[in-house]
Amino acid sequence: MPSLLFCGPKLAACGIVLSVWGVIMLAMLGIFFCSKSAVLIEDVPFTEEDIRNDPPQNVYALYNQVGINCFIAAAIYVGVGAVSLCQVRLNKRQEYMVT
């Protein structure tokens, strides 16, 4: 029977740690972007045209879009963490198997 195990225990543990860190960081960034934090204005991809046409609404829409992108990236990190957790469990189960 083919095994779904494709990484070792240390790499799986590292994946869990990085996933937890990524989810926390990106979720917080998403919250701050959606609340339109002025500190993050440098990270919003607006042009001069956005400022000339309807300054607050266009920039606020871009803030929301960047916030949504952060939440999507956090969800991807949750998926990576789930795969890493499965790898840790498969590695632990393989330790107890007799071959």
UniProtKB/TrEMBL annotation:
Subcellular location: Membrane
Top-rank lineage group of the source organism: Eukaryota
Pfam families in alphabetical order: V-ATPase_su_f
Residue spans crossing the bilayer: 12-33, 66-88
InterPro entries: Ribonucl_Kappa (IPR056552), RNase_K (IPR026770)
Any Gene Ontology CC annotation: membrane
Membrane topology: Multi-pass membrane protein
A GO term, aspect molecular function: RNA endonuclease activity
Assigned keywords, A-Z: Membrane, Transmembrane, Transmembrane helix
Primary subcellular site in the record, as a coarse category: membrane
Stated family: Belongs to the RNase K family.
Entries under PANTHER family matching the protein: RIBONUCLEASE KAPPA (PTHR31733)
Name of this protein: Ribonuclease, RNase K b
Native source species: Astyanax mexicanus (Blind cave fish)
